[in-house]
Amino acid sequence: MPSADDLFRPTAPAAPPEAPQGDGSTPPAAGEPARKRPSGRVRHDEKMTVYITSDELLAVEQARLTLRSAHALAIDRGRLVREALALALADLEERGEDSALVRRLVEE
Fold it and tell me: Where is this region: Disordered (predicted)?
């Protein structure tokens, strides 16, 4: 049985309001957009339903299991999808029409 400390532990580190966006190592240069990070392990107030095929769900599960076995990252499907979405949106913001997302959508 988990202890009370385990049940009520914070799920995200408390950051000061003036903390820079990005990896925290260097502030973004002038004119360079700040990198957005996915929300990670916090309570999410918004919900979006996405329907996927059984093959796509299997691919997500395989990726999750690979991350767990090969990289010791025990994450849930929601976190995996949020991270993948953040990567795709960052690429779109950075590269515009040259992004992988635009190229894949144009190919459809």
Answer: 1-44
